């Protein structure tokens, strides 16, 4: 049957946040003073998160990405992932991580059934990395990436939020990673999630990123799978890996959006910039899973055609990415 919204888009991808906690404080993800943490009772239990996932898959979701905050900081995460991996009908289970805990948890993640990792890595220079993350260590992340490869994970996707004057000078350094290693590096346009007035100054348009790469290398288009998300993929000719650009701001991909988000507190969002979302906790409290599935179907049916952020005078309501799962 599948999940089809009113615009004819097939929604087959769920981003499921398991926590708002994070062991980094990235500048584009939360304000300098941090964010108020959810209380224990506000965070959904693993049982309820599994119910949401099960009904979403029954309704037509084929891919689940587990996110946070940083999902690896939540106790019991490996057992939960094992249960997710066992869901009948789920075709792809992936996890997004900042990599800080990856060295000690990579084997457990692989054994639990996680099929692939997306690693957030915004700089290859220790000083810049520390500045963006407000103090985290690059070496620890790189060790985690190496360990994940050692235990048998397929080539990682590496997500890079490009910010003018902060890390955009490293674009070609990330490209070089793909020349000899089969990474899929994704450059992401900076988005105004924190409500900063100067976000346009920080945003490096996807077209400019591609032009910078094309000025140094011969590039060619690369294929995308149905569940791969909004990245416009290409590669350097002859490279082992691939590149991609996610143009959330300058070339919105709303027409092909295939995703649904659920936060750790049970708020379902059909669009990252579509307001407050729908609280699933009341329907979860009924214990009626058929009703839960109908609620998810109704949320998909109400999914907006596109966000309005790039229109003249449009303003984003500030929010912390750590709360919504990226």
Q: What coarse outline follows from CA principal-axis ratios? A: globular
- The termini sit apart by 28 Å
Percent of residues in beta strands? 15-25%
CATH class: Alpha Beta
- Our count of helices gives 11
Overall structural class, as computed from helix and strand content, comes to alpha/beta
Strand order of the largest sheet: 7-8-9-6-5-4-3-2-1-10-11-12
The whole-angstrom Rg is: 19 Å
Oligomer: single chain
Number of strands: 12
Catalytic activity: GTP + AH2 + S-adenosyl-L-methionine = (8S)-3',8-cyclo-7,8-dihydroguanosine 5'-triphosphate + 5'-deoxyadenosine + L-methionine + A + H(+)
Domain Radical SAM core: 6-220
Binding site for S-adenosyl-L-methionine: 28, 69, 120, 191
Keywords: 4Fe-4S, GTP-binding, Iron, Iron-sulfur, Lyase, Metal-binding, Molybdenum cofactor biosynthesis, Nucleotide-binding, S-adenosyl-L-methionine
What does this 3D model show about the protein?
This is GTP 3',8-cyclase. Its EC number is 4.1.99.22. It is an enzyme of class 4 (lyase). It comes from Geomonas limicola. Catalyzes the cyclization of GTP to (8S)-3',8-cyclo-7,8-dihydroguanosine 5'-triphosphate. By secondary structure, the chain is of the alpha/beta class. The chain has a single domain, classed as TIM Barrel (Alpha-Beta Barrel), CATH 3.20.20. Helix content is about 30%, strand content about 15%. The protein has eleven helices and twelve strands. The chain has helices at about 45-60, 75-85, 100-110, 125-135, 140-150, 170-180, 200, 205-215, 280-285, 290-300, 320-325; strands at about 15, 65, 90-95, 115-120, 155-160, 185-190, 220, 230-235, 240-245, 260, 265-270, 280. The chain has a twelve-stranded mixed beta sheet with strand order 7-8-9-6-5-4-3-2-1-10-11-12. The radius of gyration is 19 Å and the shape is globular. The two termini are about 30 Å apart.
